[in-house]
Amino acid sequence: MNTAKGFVFIAAFLAVSGLFSQQPKTDSLRSALHSSPEDTNKINLCLKLLDAWVSVNSDSAIYFGKTGIRLAEKLNSPRHAATLENAVGQVYYTMSNYSLAMKYYNAALARTKIHHLNKITGSLYNNIGNVYYTMGNYELALEFYRKNAEIKKQLKDYSGLASVTGNIGMIFNRLQESDKAMEYYLQAYTIGKEHGNKRVMASALNNMGTVFFGEKNFSKSLDYYLQALKIREELGEKSLMANSYSNIGGAYAELQKPDSAYYYHFRALQINSQLQSKRGVALSKINMGIVLLHQKRYAGAEKVLKESAEISRELGLYELEDQAQQELVNLYKTQNRYADALAHLERANICKDSIALNTQKLEINRKEMQLEFQKQQEIDSVKTAEKLKTEKLRHDEEVRRQSLYTYAGITGFALALLIALISYRAYRQKKRDSETIAAQKKLVEEKQKDIIDSIHYAKRIQNSLIPGEKYIERQIQRLKDECSQS
Questions:
Q1: What letter does residue 445 receive in the DSSP assignment?
Q2: Are 485 and 477 in contact, with CB atoms under 8 Å apart?
Q3: Which residues contact 47 (CB under 8 A, 6 or more apart)?
Q4: pLDDT at residue 232 greater than cutoff 90
Q5: Cα 139 vs. chain centroid, distance in angstroms?
Q6: Eight-state DSSP code of residue 176
Q7: How far apart are the C-alpha atoms of 241 and 270, rounded to whole Å?
Q8: Which DSSP state fits 2?
């Protein structure tokens, strides 16, 4: 049964592409955009509008992206310009316009390399790898995924490293190099576990289960699918839970455990119904019908297989309808209902013809796209080289201008430092002179004090030797009195 394989690839591819999921709230954003001045905030509004429109109207998303790029270039903001070019490239990628996607990725890559915007460069390497992966050029896809992995290591972005490591494993699985695929899936799981990224852990476990399923080691495959389911149930990611339920049901069916197989396919059906995933519902009903058919529960098998065929026809999913019709043919043959078997066989053949026609158209389109892609790559490489040269000249001019500002600043600083040094030396000299004068003044004052003290001391001696006035007056008076008596 191919059930598990189909969903595993879808889950892994969704993990690689990482597209937008924000619901549009365009009215308020547009109003803010029109009233905003031309600054980085307006650029960010353009990015938000692109994000809001991408799942609704790709042309509108591209319009706002290009508007933001023009403004970013006008404001000389290479980071914003590269981010928007990357986002516009993503929109073109979802539209399967790989030539234009690469044009914008390469333009952004030219900017990020000049301005050393490593985080954006890593994202661009991943997205370019996605283009090559989708076009079946696994060698180049591997080269760009590995470049992204190196940048993730440098930035210590372990969550991103785990994801891109899983992508590398997915390429080796597509190349049927199961040993290498397992090696990278195990690395992705280990990195995710070390850094607490349960989503990556579950994806790695699921993909390892797919490798074992492809090798027909269904017991080991089941073990890994169950481990992945446990984590996904913890995370509550319903679409991935449905993927795990379907894979587990497929493993149980191969292990000849129909009751368990039916249970898990039914669980997948319940979630796909909740998510309104018609494709998922059609696939789950086919798987349930196959299990019921093997159990010889023909009425139930006929009911779900017819429902699956009807949904698949409505959606134009010829591969699924062909599978459902073929199982109905087997059922009717078992019941000897040959007229019914013939009718459904005719419808199955119509589906096969449609599949073959679509395959031819896709192959022709792929080759035409490849040729157009190569021509566009050559044109873009010339334009990118010119743009790179222009950006480099602009960058060099900016560096030169900054260098002039730096040299002027250094010269001014040196001059100010010299003036400060001269002023400081003058201050120190003045301070020393002041200290010398103060010392000399103090010395003079001390000597003057000594002289004054000496004078006062001599005067005290003199005064002690010379009789006082009163004493002289008393003596004169005494002599006068003696003379008058005689």
A1: H
A2: no
A3: 64, 65, 68, 80, 83, 84, 87
A4: yes
A5: 24
A6: T
A7: 11
A8: -
Token pair listed for 302: 């006929």
pLDDT tens per residue, range 427-460: 788 777 777 777 777 777 777 777 777 777 777 7
pTM of the predicted model, to two decimals? 0.65
Tokens 């080796």 found at: 172
Residues 300 and 291: their CA atoms lie apart, in Å, by 10
Would you list the DSSP string of 94-107? HTT-HHHHHHHHHH
Per-residue model confidence as pLDDT tens digits over 76-102 = 999 999 999 999 999 999 888 888 999
Query: Could you give the CA distance from residue 97 to residue 306 in angstroms, rounded to a whole number?
Result: 36
- Read off the tokens for 439: 């010392």
462 Cβ neighbours under 8 A, 6+ residues apart? none
Which tokens hold the place of 92?
A: 């073109």
- 115-125 in b/e form (b: 16+ CB < 10 A) is bebbbbbbbbb
What the block records as the tokens of 163 is 């994801």
pLDDT one-digit tens code per residue, 105-155: 999 999 999 999 999 999 999 999 999 888 888 999 999 999 999 999 999
Q: How many angstroms separate the CA atoms of 416 and 403, rounded?
A: 19
- CA 253/CA 275 separation, integer angstroms: 25
Q: How many CB atoms lie within 10 A of CB 79?
A: 16
Residue 46 corresponds to which tokens in the numbers above?
Answer: 């353009």
**Mean pLDDT of all residues belonging to the chain:** 85
User: Hey, what are 227's tokens?
Assistant: 């481990």
Confidence of residue 400 (pLDDT cuts 50, 70, 90): confident
Angle separating helix axes 78-94 and 98-115, nearest 10 degrees: 160
